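hiii, so i know i said id send this last week but things got crazy w the move. better late than never?? heres the sequnce for the chain we talked about at the cafe, plus the structure i predicted for it. fair warning i was half asleep when i ran it
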Amino acid sequence: MTTDPYLADCRARLAFDLLSNTWNAVLLWALRDGPRRPGELCERIGGISPKVLTETLRRLEFNGLVERHAYAEAPPRVEYELTALGRTLLGPIDAFGAWAFEHGDEVMAAQDRNSG
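okay and structure toks below
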């Protein structure tokens, strides 16, 4: 891999791609306190459809950030939890959240000024 941030195979670009999808960061943050079932995640997050939840969990699992655990029970139970790698993203997500809390009003004011 190269270190040029504009090339497709750059590691920095890979990291930004992981966090650029809104639901990726939201789901990682929702799993920070431990394993959750899909229904719990939908309730905790709000505004995410079951289809988008499933797609996002699969994407996070594909990237090694989330593990899926299926339990052979009646009825079957599935839980998702962060991997050690997924936990390493909690710090950057928290930093983005702190930035948004501190500067969100300024961004929204700029959007208001520039819309219409």
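btw The longest strand covers residues 66-71. thought thatd interest u
miss u guys!!
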